[in-house]
Amino acid sequence: MPVVKFITARGDEHLVNVDVNASVMEAARNNDVPGIDGDCGGCAACGTCHVHIDAAWIEKTGHASDGGESDMLEFVEGADEYSRLACQISITEELDGLIVRLPLAQH
């Protein structure tokens, strides 16, 4: 079972075991990781699951997809080249050890 490390804006770390094919958003919400709201439930319609993928992992997760995800990221505060919507990242065995940084707040 892959493990994802969530790091809050304050530097608190949360290690979470994640089922393959679950989204990063689901992993955070199911394990009470603070900082990911996921108000739309995972359909890339709200931006409240915005995260920053650690630079060492961005090639494995990929950058934000064109269309809905990249459009939504235009409206979130603090988006950068490592920004993704956590609902759009599906966990695979290859992502074991993934490091995800949470923004200060979700808007």
Instruction: Tell how many strands the DSSP assignment holds.
Output: 5
Quickly count the helices.
3
Helix percent reads 10-25%
Describe the sheet with the most strands.
5 strands, mixed
Distance between the termini: 31 Å
Question: Would you mind describing this structure in some detail?
Answer:
This protein has 107 residues and is of the alpha+beta class. The chain has a single domain (3-101), classed as Beta-grasp domain (Ubiquitin-like (UB roll), Roll). Helix content is 16%, strand content 20%. The chain has three helices and five strands; from the N terminus they run ββαβααββ. The protein has helices at 24-30, 58-61, 68-73, and strands at 3-7, 13-17, 50-53, 83-85, 98-101. Strands 2-1-5-3-4 form a five-stranded mixed sheet. The mean pLDDT is 94.
Write the layout of secondary structure elements.
Layout: E1 3-7, E2 13-17, H1 24-30, E3 50-53, H2 58-61, H3 68-73, E4 83-85, E5 98-101
Parallel strand pairs: 1-5
Antiparallel strand pairs: 1-2, 3-4, 3-5
Q: What are the key terms here?
A:
107 residues, alpha+beta, Ubiquitin-like (UB roll), 5-stranded mixed β-sheet, globular
